Amino acid sequence: MTTLVAVCALTLASVNAVASENAPVEITASTVVADSINRHVLEKAVKNYNPVNEQTVVDLVNAVAAESTVDIGDAGHASIENGWMLSGKEGQPALGIRLAGTETSKMAAGVLVSPDVDKSITAVSRATGAGAQVLAVLEGAGDVHFDLALPQNARLLPLADGSISVTAPVEVEVPLAGEEARVETSAQKIIGDIQTDEEFDSLTDEQWEKLARIPDIQTKTENLSQEIAVINPAWAVDAKGAPLKTEYVLEGNTLIQRVHTDESTAFPVVADPSWTWWVKKGAACAAGVASMATFGYARVSVGIAKLVVKMKKAPSASKLGKAYAAWKKLGTSESARFKELGRQIKSLASLVVKHGSKGLGKHRAKGSKAAASISFIIEGGKAVGSLFGIYQCWEMVDAI
Q1: What are phi and psi for residue 152, nearest 5 degrees?
Q2: What pairs with residue 78 in β-bridges?
Q3: In this structure, are residues 146 and 100 in contact, taking their beta carbons and an 8 Å threshold?
Q4: How far is CA 81 from the centre of its chain?
């Protein structure tokens, strides 16, 4: 039996149509996947493939699209519900995808295996370190239909590179007009016209106490349309590892992957819609860090004061007490700690963009200050994000 594998993905990537056999090789998502395949592993998986044996279906998918799979039961960012692969945490816009026509499902090796009604397509749903993924194994030529579950008022926008942008209204807290200026002016009256780190680090306990008593910035909740995911351009690879031409078509909330086959195509086929939201979270966090780097001494002093004064007074075993212990590990002065926090979070954000949820562990392993920055965000909670303008970073770490 020959086997064709076609995969589409809900992630940040790009794809184009693959060239014909005699045309110049074009770099596409399909060719990138094809080049990464271990041909010996694929040959063995195809030989052992049996559509009614869930484990062999999973083995075939793994041979084509190797991912570091997370057991669905252990994945905090992904879940299975009535055959849907859902991604997103409570309180955040959730995305869902499933193979159209799915009626029954079985768990195998921590992933969900779901055949469609006529058993011509089998879907493998799995959580990955970067999000969630659904791969479909096809027994013959034809399109693959996936149902999408989207947040209310979500929009799907096809992009020029073959990907699809997913936007949805998201509740965000924004400062009331004039509030940031009020706080900064109040701080300047307490600390004066500070120009250097040395002056900043010479603030007295009385000044820190006064800064901490400045009323918090008043905010309001707004619904803003934000890009919450991007459906990766489709890719397809047949049972011999040859890349295939493929693209998406949208029909309402149905995502159709069109896979182009001919007499040389080896069947069955595997098709993969998957998505990650870590890239978006990491990018948003990085933007917050960039903004934090522009803060003047007045803005920085208020944020530090409101946290440090509270943390100093908190029991050492409490969350704020642990946050204070982590804060002190970042440097020998308040200005040094603030700058080191910015450097560490910038590094963390870039690792999450590149490695998904695994980026957190990679950052923590870089050293004591890296680990301290994560502890400070976790133990300090939302207050850290709000006061330093890096709420997306707290949300990112909390989600991981």
Answers
A1: -60, 135
A2: 87
A3: yes
A4: 20
pTM of the entire predicted model: 0.66
Q: Is residue 354 exposed (0-12), middle (13-18) or buried (19+ Cβ within 10 Å)?
A: middle
Domain ranges in the chain are 4-163+229-275, 190-216+281-399
d(CA 11, CA 280): 10
Tokens describing residue 385: 């994000």
The encoded tokens of residue 152 equal 């209310």
Extract the tokens encoding 318: 């409490």
CA distance linking residue 89 with residue 110, whole number of Å: 20
- Residue pointed to by tokens 């009323």: 215
Q: Each residue's pLDDT tens digit in the chain (400 positions)?
A: 444 555 443 332 322 323 334 444 567 888 888 888 899 999 999 999 998 888 999 899 889 886 644 444 444 455 666 667 676 555 555 677 888 877 778 877 778 888 876 668 888 887 766 667 778 888 888 888 888 888 888 889 898 888 888 888 877 778 899 998 999 999 999 999 888 999 999 999 999 999 999 998 888 888 888 777 777 788 888 998 988 888 899 998 889 999 899 989 998 777 766 665 566 677 778 888 888 888 888 988 998 998 888 888 889 899 889 999 999 999 999 999 999 999 999 999 888 877 777 788 889 999 999 999 999 998 888 777 777 878 778 877 876 6
